[in-house]
Amino acid sequence: MAEKEKPNFKIVADNRRARYDYELGETFEAGLMLTGTEVKSLRTGKATVAESYAAVDRNGAVILYNANIPEYLQANRFNHEPKRDRKLLLHAKEIVKLARGVEREGMTIVPLRIYFNEKGRAKIAIALGRGKKLHDKRETEKARDWNRDKSRLMRDRG
Known about the structure:
Elements: E1 10-14, H1 18-21, E2 22-32, H2 36-44, E3 53-56, E4 62-65, E5 86-89, H3 92-105, E6 108-116, E7 122-131, H4 134-157
Antiparallel strand pairs: 1-6, 2-5, 2-7, 3-4, 4-5, 6-7
């Protein structure tokens, strides 16, 4: 069996529940405007983006709200606020796509994961998502269970 290729980036925080709660559409990679202590804290790998979201503000900038990057313990008085709003760095065309999706189509900007790319820069993967209803969640869970059982049956047969 072939070995899996290791990705050349380190995932810091992953929003695994996003695929369960939202129908995800187009994904974007954005940079994060961070302070020095936030970067050091991210390198320890204790950030969470599970209950966070992003929005386009009046000035045309995309802001990440409610993402928790804990304080860096060695920074004493120069520390940052853990749940402060952070600006996302995107191209103008991408911001227009996101704003159009939120305004016209009623979608949400969902953060998927925070990671360090191959150059060592902190990036965030965001996607346009539409919230699933309860019956949609049940359908996806049923399909996932059936696929798991089907692969188990096929493996047992040979």
